[in-house]
Amino acid sequence: MSQPDFTADIYQNEYLPEGGQEVNAVITVTTAGTTSAAPPAETDSAEIIIIDCSGSMGSPRSKIAEARAATAAAVDVIRDGVAFAVIAGTEHAAPIFPSDGTLAVAGPQTREAAKQAVARLQPGGGTAIGQWLRLACQMFSSHRAQLRHAILLTDGKDEHESSEDLSSAIRLCEGAFSCDCRGVGTDWEVAELRRISTGLLGTVDIVPDPAGLAADFSAMIAAAMGKQVAGVSLRIWTPQHASIQFVKQVAPAIEDLTGRRIDSGPQAGDYPTGAWGAGESRDYHVCVQVIAGAVGQEMLAGRVSLVADSPSGPQVLGQGLVRAIWTDDEALSTRISKQVAHYTGQAELAQVIQEGLEARKQGDEDTATAKLGRAVALAQQSGNEDTAKLLAKVVDVVDAATGTVRLKKKVEDADEMALDTRSSKTVRTRK
Q: Hey, which end of the chain has fewer CB within 10 Å, N or C?
């Protein structure tokens, strides 16, 4: 498999005060913008499109019609030679193309056959998303592709199985494939799709109008076709008696990877980052707790490596060092890393939006006003204009700088859900 070059740049204030134990660093991982290598071979990539065909997709009728059109548009974007399939989801999961549960190889004839099968999809039945994921996992496992990606579309809640059924399905699929989730309309649960997208290293978003599905599906498939290396992990080594407090992706969106650690050697653990393509850049915030050193002492607090699976074993693609130096110079030890401060604020922004929306849903207007007001102030401070615009559809902003707001009396469901689904999207630090 071809792969771009990786670089890992470390941003931190390495100076700690006497007695200081917490070391924070932001790691910017970037791949080369272009690559001279050939695209992945046909056996390296596989795509599955999972379409909700429950009864609610027939009301209004445009939902199922636009879902069929979007699936056809996505099929057209799949590169020749890539393995692919389409699944219809109700309270059960059924392979629509190929109908025998295998994966087809993309080409003019198979694309046309897939679109003909999709054109026959009709709504009817319930919703059991865990069943859909399990079938996708089974179908992916029958193929040797390393780059495995799925799109999951639903318009409703996961009503025909338990929450634990869905959780166990997500656990089964972790590491097997990535999944971008989309909710069409406003009758689905953001929290449910976020559980899936977080577990499967994908994205979640709302498509309020079914007419927007085709462009969104095509863009997701195009992005997946640009991936070149699968299974990249952040491998973090720490010295004896040090401990990782957290590892979070903080750009382009916040994802907490702390609980995903897999031990990879003495004092080292791997945190999954998913697949990468040329020209990508992501930021990660790592916090390490160390034993305090004496003034003047310097230590390596962590070694961060980018590691990819290969037939010959793990391959190191890039590396950066996190340092700690103890000082009694207050000017040095109190200097805040711009990147660390920025992403600490972005993480708080996502948290207060979600807490504020939940408080609003529970009728706690005081808490909702305070949380969403804080979000408005954070969005302005960080220059997160997209989030500020979404917040302005939920609250009336009196003073953005101080976070003084009033809750709007009437808020469209789609606006509230868009703010929720996109709350974890971040902006990079200003240059």
A: C
